[in-house]
Amino acid sequence: MVKSKKKLLFVINHVFMPLKLPQKDDLDEENEQTLCKIVYETAQEFEDAVPAEERPRWNRLLKMLQEFMTAHRFLKLSKDDIIRSLKDAQSGDVLAFLIRAQNAGVIIRKGPESVVFEMFEVSPPNEAIMSAESRLNRSFPDQSVRIPTDVFEDIKFRTELAGFLAAMDTDILDSAPITVKAKSAVTEVRDTAHPRYITQLLTDILRGMGEVVEVPRIAKRVADDILWSNTYKPWRRSAIWLVLRVALQTTLVRRSSGQGRYKELIAFLHARILQLSLKLDLPNYFIACMQRKTARRLAKLGSIAPPFLLQSIQDATTMAQSLLQERWKAAQEAQATSLNSTWAPSVLDIAADTVLSLHNSKEYLLESLQGTHRKSASNTFTPNHLPRLFGAGNFANFSVQLLAIAFISDDRLTALADFEQAVLDNLSDWATENLFSDDSYLLIASCMERYSDAASKAYSSNPELLSIMILTLFKLWVELDRIAITQCPLLAKFSPEVPCTLLHPLLLRTSRTMEALDHVEKYLRGRYFRAVPGQSVFASTIDEASFAVQYFDQSGYHQVLKLRIEETARAQRLNKITELHALKARYYGLIKSAEDCEHEYVTEEDKQGRVRKIMSPQCRRCKLEKQALAMVIVVHEWPLPLDPEEAKAVVFELAPPLPFAMWRKVTYTLLREICIPAIADALKQPAYMQLNSCPTLMLFHHQIGQDPRVVLASISKSFGVSHYREQNVAGATEASVCVNHGLKWKLFDSSRCEWVTQRISKCSIEDHCILRLHPGRYQSLQYAVSGTSHTSNETMANQAACPTELTLHEFMAFTKIRSGPRLQWLNIMSELRSGSLNLQEEAVYSLISQAVWQMGPSALDGRREWHIEPTEWSFGETLLVELRDVLLRLKANWRNVIGLQVITTVTSRLLASATDAVVIEKGLKLLREVRDITYGWLNKLLEKLGDAETEDALQENRIRICEMAAICRGTYDIDVDKAWALFSDTEDVAIFVHCAILFNYHSPVQVSNLDVRFRNLLVRDRRLCHVMEPLVIHCIAQSREGLDRAILRVWKFYRPYFPCKHLPMPNDRWVVTSTSPSGMQKSQAVHLDLLSSQLLIDGKPLGRLPQAILTHPTYTRIFGQRSLDVIPADMPGMDFETSSPIGFDLDDHGSGYQVFFALRNFISKDDPGQLVIRTQRDAEILELIPHDVFKNDLPAILVEDQTHWLNVSTSKGQIEIRDLKSKWKSSKNNWRIQFCQDDHGSSFMELKNGTLIQKLIDPRSATMSMMAANLRPLEDPDYLIVTFSATSSRLVVSLPRLGLEFFLNDEKDPSLESANMPGMIIDANQSSETMIGLQSQLILRERVSSEPCLRQVIIPFTPDTHLTISSSIHHCSISLVTDDRPNVRYLIYMIDPMLGRLEGDGTMLSKLYKAYLHAITSHCLPDPLTGRTGTEEALEELRSAGVMSFQKLGDSERLMLQKINELTPQREYYPSHLK
Question: At what angle do helices 284-301 and 307-336 cross, to 10 degrees?
Answer without folding.
Answer: 150
